[in-house]
Amino acid sequence: MNREEMRKFFTSLMAKFIDYGGKRLADDVIHKLKELNEKEKSPIGRVVYDAMFTDLKMADELDRPCCQDTGVLQFFVQVGTKFPLIDDINDCLTEAVKIATIEAPLRHNVVEIFDEKNTGNNVGTRIPWIDWEVVPYSDEVIIYSYMAGGGCSLPGVAKVLMPAEGYEGMIEFVFDQITSYGINACPPLYVGIGIAGSVDVAAKLSKKALLRPIGSRNTNTRGAELEVRLEEGLNALQIGPGGLSGASSVMGVAIEQAGRHPATIAVGLNTGCWAHRRACIKIGPSLEYEMLSHKGVCL
């Protein structure tokens, strides 16, 4: 393929990737929902889980998004410096969003600030949002897509704590937010937490934490222990599926961290709802690809 043919193929592939991720949940999310369903003893909780799986079955059969709020598209791109379309990714992803908006279809969700006008194609100022990581010497690209809906974004918040508040203050912050706003995000939730020295870094890390597979653990032993203890504590609240009470409040807790200044500790919190529409694809230099989040899928 020449460059223009590669651009067209890549754009088409990304449009199909967006489409697929809005209709079918990742393997780890499905596995966790089945696990929580089996543990659920509450009659109303079992009804809610049944409704979730019925929804997913119909979305697959009817080829429709599994949630009417298809969110605002966010991409997290880990691109090698030798990937042949490194200069074209931004434009191709933007065009792919426009195509997927029509073909999936996706609800029109992008409203321009100040103008208060819906763009009608899910593209706008700095949207789709693209987060970049450059990988030296690599000729591959790994792209995560995330549909940030109005519900799962509501509890999103970040704060710089007073130094004396320490990790206890961070834990209190998480519980305050989940108990105050968590049910707005359609539990059981996937909870992403960022810990850093400034509010912007903590907020970004909390969103990137949601990209991790459910059940994975922080590489730091103490961080992994904190993930487990927070998960146990949040589940003990028994918020339950749909916020209607039940055995589990969360699908999991993921923490990402960055070094901090001695005088500050910042914490960010983001949540994914039960319909955690995160997808991941790896693309090689000849545009061969593998869906990492949905094993064996051909787009």
What's the helix and strand layout?
Blueprint lengths: L2 H19 L5 H13 L3 H20 L9 E9 L8 H15 L7 E2 L4 E2 L10 E7 L5 E8 L1 H4 L3 E5 L4 H16 L7 E8 L2 H11 L11 H16 L13 E8 L7 E8 L5 E6 L5 E3 L8
Parallel strand pairs: 1-4, 7-8
Antiparallel strand pairs: 1-5, 2-3, 5-10, 6-9, 7-9, 10-11
Helix pairs in contact: 1-4
How many strands, what sense, and barrel or not for the largest sheet? 5 strands, mixed
Mean model confidence by pLDDT: 96
Number of E-state strands: 11
Structural class: alpha+beta
Shape annotation = globular
Number of helices: 8
Q: List the strand order in the largest sheet.
A: 4-1-5-10-11
Encode the helix/strand succession as letters. Answer: HHHEHEEEEHEHEHHEEEE
Rg: 19 Å
Instruction: Please indicate the count of domains.
Output: 2
CA distance, first residue to last residue: 19 Å
How helical, in percent, are the residues? 25-40%
Q: What fraction strand?
A: 15-25%
Contiguous low-pLDDT stretches (5 residues minimum) are none
